[in-house]
Design brief:
two-stranded antiparallel ribbon; 9 helices; about 40% helix; about 270 residues
Length: about 270
């Protein structure tokens, strides 16, 4: 290869990297309409914000982070919102985005939603989960401890189990094993309650009951579990299920409403026994 040709190739490569370096990916302009509420007993209202240079690769919560940075620079209070793992595991995050719990995509939590889902110039309405049993504490943060109290009423096994048994010591059918594992995927985020027109918690309770009802280890306390958990659910003020299946449609883990049918069977069997 001649020196002249080599220099020409080298120059082309340098120009390529120079062009790449100076190319700037334009961010999106997003119009936000966010529910703001100072405290549980305060009156709330929507406030409008404009966020510029939003990268499509940002997560939804990262977009809220830069919004809060903008508000702090202007001397305003940041938007309060729940978050923790930001990996769709813990169930801490959860807001209603344009009328849908966790946003427009199926099978994802709010923290897994990315801004590429939206377009430049879009208006996004963000509000907290709405339910009598989920009172708003501040802005987008709601009190979901009602779920904790339901879980404490019976969502556990209290029998002595001893040391860890061999994996094949208790035969369990593949079908029941798969159904129990799927029910156990419920992360208790509360999207089912937010999506339901009656603010019903039946999908949550049915998942917690089913993950034990399907396994022999859960049979010992099965009667007390279902009666106590349903009673706790009713005491918290959740509504009744009317089979619209909105809960399954909005659930980020896509828990099946067939668990609700199982909960009803377990409940009536316990009541009549």
């Amino acid at each position: 290869m001649s020196i002249l040709r080599f220099n020409s190739i080298n120059l082309s490569i340098n120009n390529l990297f120079t062009n790449i370096a100076i190319t700037k990916i334009e961010g999106m302009k997003i119009n936000l309409k966010v529910w703001r509420q100072k405290s549980k007993n305060a009156e709330g209202s929507f406030e409008n914000y404009v966020v510029n240079d939003v990268s499509p690769d940002m997560s939804f919560l990262e977009m809220l982070d830069i919004t809060n940075e903008m508000l702090l620079k202007d001397g305003k209070n940041p938007i309060a919102f729940d978050h923790d793992c930001r990996e769709g595991i813990c169930g801490t995050c959860g807001v209603v985005i344009n009328g849908q719990a966790h946003g427009p995509l199926k099978g994802v939590t709010t923290c897994q939603l990315h801004m590429r889902t939206f377009k430049d110039g879009d208006t996004i309405v963000i509000e907290p989960f709405r339910a009598t049993a989920f009172p708003v504490l501040r802005d987008l943060v709601v009190d979901r401890t009602a779920f904790d109290r339901i879980q404490q009423a019976g969502g556990f096994i209290s029998v002595n189990t001893g040391s860890v048994p061999d994996a094949n010591a208790i035969p369990i059918s593949k079908q029941n094993s798969d159904l129990a594992f799927h029910a156990a995927e419920c992360i208790g985020c509360g999207a089912c309650v937010a999506a339901c027109k009656n603010s019903s918690a039946m999908l949550f309770v049915s998942a917690k009951v089913s993950q034990y009802a399907l396994l022999p280890q859960g049979k010992v306390e099965g009667k007390d579990r279902v009666l106590n958990m349903v009673a706790a659910m009713d005491n918290e003020g959740f509504g009744n299920c009317t089979n619209t299946e909105a809960c399954e449609a909005e659930c980020p883990k896509q828990i099946s409403v067939s668990n609700i049918a199982r909960l009803n069977r377990e409940y009536y069997a316990a009541k009549l026994s």
